[in-house]
Design brief:
The chain is mostly helical. About 70% of the residues lie in helices and about 0% in strands. It is built from 9 helices and no strands.
């Protein structure tokens, strides 16, 4: 990640000659130390936020929290998979700590008597998450260049912003987000699924793309 950051996202596949490689190396070298430090700080923030959430989950939450706890656990599995630092684009990775802090605040609010409110907001999220999860599973083998694949990824990150708006509004969101915007984006995804030749084989019982 740090090397990619230092090289300003240059695509190695475009390098065809030694001179091009040397030019990129000369351009990248002065920025490597700063990129390494930036990446280290970001990683520490993410891991610290993740530990805080896991610490709350390890405190044997009461049975009444089960739905919320299972949702947070599922959120963590998607946010920070095993190789998340190499799999996530930099512009997305920078928001991971905030999403994790949102999950932490959600659990803390449950502890202070916010179970009913959490349930109401979880019901707003659930169908929007479920339809993404189903289609994302079916589209897992699509190439990254696929229009549908890119649209699903964008929708996922907007769902994370939507989570913040529902459960941890005090953290703020990186963009304007609402149920209306999320639903309009889903309609575009359904359109992409119909028009994307890579997605012709998909049939989605929940999303009906």
């Amino acid at each position: 990640m740090a090397i990619s950051r230092a090289s300003a996202g240059a695509d190695p596949s475009t390098i065809r000659a030694r001179s091009q490689f040397e030019a990129l190396a000369d351009e990248t070298e002065p920025r490597i130390d700063a990129a390494l430090l930036e990446t280290l700080n970001l990683t520490q923030n993410i891991l610290s936020a993740a530990r805080a959430v896991l610490g709350l989950l390890d405190q044997s939450p009461p049975p009444a929290w089960r739905d919320a706890v299972e949702d947070v656990e599922q959120q963590l599995r998607h946010l920070i998979p095993e190789h998340f630092l190499s799999e996530r684009p930099w512009e997305r990775t920078g928001h991971l700590a905030r999403y994790l802090r949102g999950a932490q605040l959600r659990l803390q609010k449950l502890a202070s008597g916010g179970l009913e409110r959490d349930g109401k907001r979880a019901r707003e999220l659930a169908p929007r998450w479920a339809r993404w999860h189903e289609l994302d599973r079916l589209a897992a083998d699509l190439p990254e260049s696929s229009t549908l694949r890119r649209s699903l990824d964008d929708y996922y990150w907007n769902l994370e912003e939507y989570r913040v708006s529902l459960f941890a509004q005090e953290l703020g969101t990186a963009c304007k987000i609402s149920a209306t915007r999320i639903d309009a984006q889903w309609q575009q995804i359904r359109h992409d699924a119909r028009d994307d030749p890579h997605a012709a084989r998909l049939h989605t019982p929940t999303g009906r793309a």
